[in-house]
Amino acid sequence: MIIRLTTFAAAACLIWQWDNRRRAQEQERALQKSKAKPAEVTTWEGEGGALPTVGSQLGPAPSHS
After folding, report:
1. For residues 32 and 51, what is the distance between their CA atoms, to the nearest angstrom?
2. Is the pTM of this model over 0.85?
3. pLDDT tens across the length of the chain (65 residues)
4. CB of 57 closer than 8 Å to CB of 50
């Protein structure tokens, strides 16, 4: 009787671990599919401006003579 209970407990443990691993893999696949596209970076180079972190906006204010 003890051998049957031990075998049943070991089989239940193995099935539980397999099911947890399968669920984790399904969840990871679902997260990879549902990721949004990254936001597009605005450079303003085509409109005569500078990049957001470098360029004329970081220099001193223009002086009028």
Report:
1. 31
2. no
3. 899 999 999 999 999 999 999 999 999 888 887 667 777 776 655 555 555 555 555 556 656 66
4. yes
Sequence-distant (≥ 6) Cβ neighbours of residue 50 within 8 angstroms: 44, 56, 57
Residue 49: Cβ within 10 Å count: 13
For residue 52, count other CB atoms closer than 10 A to its CB.
11
| Integer angstrom CA distances of residue 10 from 5, 13, 28, 39 | 9, 5, 27, 49
For residue 39, which amino acid is it? Answer: A
